[in-house]
Design a protein that fits this description.
- By secondary structure, this protein is α/β, with parallel strands linked by helices.
- It has one domain.
- The chain is 26% helix and 22% strand.
- The protein starts with a strand and ends with a strand.
């Protein structure tokens, strides 16, 4: 059976059911960025035994993994047959702290961990800065080399291409413009600038990585005012696309298949499915 790993956000994770009949063998790495993923751990960081309020268990796991840099080892140990990437979580700024790079996610900001000594004197690196671009490209090259040198080289790599929606469907079916990107509560960015960044990231990713299949549906990037989560920055796919990865039925015969997925979120989930046959 396929063992699927996701390095990205909920726009990909939620293509599978969260409960019930979801894929059993599914690994999920989120709330990170390539510069953080490839960084050294934060020295002296001490995680709490239980998630600090208001974090849930999975949110706490994600922020601790980003600070302790355990995701890559877990990914390799999982030995996935497929690794799916999306870059919607590459919207957050970064922090440089104690010679480490970490992701300035909402989870980190509310965790209380920034009061610990290793984060004193931390420096914020804006996502849309030249410094962040340089760090990201260097870390991507390191990650590509890491993939080629580990069992990840045997996995099928898939890029789930996505963009922030700039229009939303209202209750009467008309479209209204969506102004800006809410990175996290009260933290806004420019949708055009972030979409241009995503396009550059994806182009660099395809250029430096081993062969990658791309799944995208650019005609489906419309948000929905009636979505249960509202027009939110957190990418949750509500359609839901339920294309499980079927067992391989022929050596090396893989194909990406589309299915319908609707989303009311600003980083629009694509109508995309993944199927290995």
């Amino acid at each position: 059976m396929p063992r699927v790993a996701i390095v990205g956000s909920c726009i990909t994770r939620d293509l599978w059911p969260i409960r019930g009949d979801g894929l059993k063998d599914l690994a999920y790495v989120s709330r990170t960025s390539f510069p953080s993923l490839m960084s050294r751990p934060v020295p002296g960081f001490a995680p709490a035994a239980a998630p600090p309020e208001p974090l849930k268990q999975h949110q706490h796991r994600a922020v601790v993994a980003d600070l302790r840099k355990t995701a890559l080892a877990q990914l390799v140990a999982f030995r996935p047959t497929h690794v799916i990437f999306d870059f919607i979580d590459e919207r957050f700024d970064l922090y440089a702290a104690s010679r480490a790079i970490v992701t300035r996610s909402w989870e980190l900001e509310v965790s209380g961990y920034l009061t610990q000594a290793p984060f004193a004197g931390r420096r914020r690196i804006p996502r849309l800065s030249a410094a962040c671009d340089r760090l990201w490209l260097e870390a991507l090259a390191e990650f590509a080399a890491f993939v080629r040198a580990t069992p990840l080289a045997h996995a099928r790599l898939i890029l789930h291409s996505a963009r922030w929606a700039t229009a939303s469907r209202t209750e009467d079916g008309t479209l209204r413009p969506v102004d800006g990107v809410e990175i996290m509560g009260g933290d806004w960015g420019d949708a055009g600038a972030h979409n241009a960044l995503l396009a550059r990231y994806e182009a660099d990713f395809l250029d430096l990585m081993p062969p990658v299949d791309v799944v995208a549906a650019p005609d489906a990037r419309i948000a929905d005012d009636a979505h249960q989560w509202g027009v939110q920055p957190l990418p949750l796919c509500a359609g839901l696309l339920r294309r499980d990865l079927a067992p391989a039925r022929g050596a090396g015969r893989h194909r990406a298949r589309r299915a319908q997925c609707s989303s009311g979120v600003r980083p629009e989930a694509t109508r995309s499915g993944f199927e290995a046959r």
